[in-house]
Design brief:
By secondary structure, this protein is mostly beta strands. The chain has three domains: about 80 residues, no CATH class; about 90 residues, Immunoglobulins (Immunoglobulin-like), CATH 2.60.40; about 80 residues, Immunoglobulin-like, CATH 2.60.40.3080. It contains one helix and 19 strands. Strands 7, 8, 10, 11 and 12 form a five-stranded antiparallel sheet that branches. The radius of gyration is 26 Å and the shape is elongated. The relative contact order is 0.11.
Length: about 280
């Protein structure tokens, strides 16, 4: 539950006695399958008991994977009414990722995710990574309106996935707070030599290449469709995820070519298009 409040300023934590100052507190109820925790944020003459308050309720499922689910705001909790629900010392990002799925269809990545407790959300960012550590945003999805407790979203990538890629979903609230889903991996399994070109078709005769699982010395060559070599060089790869750039001769005609990466025991080919 702490992750739900990680980006929130101005929220106080309760003491061991259940009192955190300004009548803010956390109450806990133990159930057979988990723990229900309710956070109350009060304001307005709090030394006298607080005139207004806002309450958020979460459940930690201890009988499974300890996931946290946002249960919403209880209208009459601690005497709170809809009219009184005006205390907002910080905006909590209550969203909970129920699950994230992924698949490859026609060479393109397709992600699907289910969420619960969607409130005050600006967008979902889809992020990918070649190594599961360094992520970049590759797409965005706007949240839908409605009051469904659980919602499902899908996203399809534009680039071909022919190497192992890691994906996660970032939910962004209207105040800039963020929550991340679990990371999933799509594409080839670890240990399989592969290359990827982004973008493809290429422009300006510049080829951006990602080489995966290919430690060692390799020759990199580009051939036209008649088998004539138009570019070649050696490449020393020292990490499992390696990036490099090839600049083709300025006189290279537009059309289709074959990029080949090889050493004494491995060879990978990739068709590229020069525009």
């Amino acid at each position: 539950m702490a992750a739900q409040f990680a980006a929130v300023s101005g929220i106080y934590h309760a003491s061991a006695e259940g009192y955190g100052g300004d009548n803010n507190n956390i109450t806990v109820q133990f159930q057979g399958d988990g723990i229900v925790a309710r956070y109350r944020n009060g304001c307005g003459d709090c030394p006298a008991g607080c005139t207004y308050s806002t309450t958020w309720t979460f459940k930690v499922f201890t009988n499974t994977d300890c996931r946290v689910e946002y249960l919403g705001r209880i209208p009459n909790a601690d005497g709170e009414t809809a009219y009184q629900r005006v205390c907002t010392r910080g905006t909590v990002l209550p969203i909970s990722f129920v699950d994230v799925y992924g698949s490859i269809k026609n060479g393109k990545a397709i992600l699907e995710w289910k969420v619960a407790g969607e409130e005050n959300l600006a967008k979902y960012d889809v992020e990918d990574s070649p190594n599961g550590i360094d992520f970049t945003t590759v797409g965005s999805v706007k949240p839908t309106t409605g009051s469904a407790a659980t919602k499902t979203y899908t996203w399809q990538g534009k680039d071909e996935v022919n190497v192992a890629r890691y994906y996660r979903i970032k939910s962004v609230s209207i105040n800039g707070g963020a929550t991340y889903s679990k990371i999933i991996k799509l594409g080839l399994s670890a240990g399989t030599l592969s290359i990827n070109v982004k973008p493809n078709p290429i422009q300006g005769n510049k080829i951006n290449i990602e080489i995966n699982n290919a430690k060692g010395a390799y020759s990199v060559a580009v051939y036209n469709m008649q088998g004539v070599t138009i570019f070649t060089r050696t490449e020393s790869v020292t990490a499992n995820a390696h990036s490099t750039v090839i600049n083709l001769p300025a006189s290279t005609p537009k059309g289709s070519y074959q990029l080949v990466l090889q050493n004494s025991g491995q060879l990978v080919k990739k068709v590229i298009v020069v525009q």
